[in-house]
Write a structure and sequence with these properties.
The chain contains no helices and three strands. Helix content is about 0%, strand content about 15%. The termini are close together. The chain is mainly β. Bound molecules: zinc ion (ZN). Zinc ion binds next to loops.
Length: about 60
Amino acid sequence: MANKYCCKACDYVYNPQRGDLEGGVSPGVEFEDLPENWICPRCGLGKEYFEPVVSKEEE
Ligand SMILES: [Zn+2]
């Protein structure tokens, strides 16, 4: 299942279904598959500052 990840610093949400077009990430790329040097497009922090978004609606 595709998981969204939220930046703990700025609340930016990475949605795998949308990707990150500004960062050159095509839609459909899972967060785990992002390059290690990928950074938050809003605040510039790295992947280690992201945590999974738990959506009860999808359970
Ligand atoms: Zn951020």
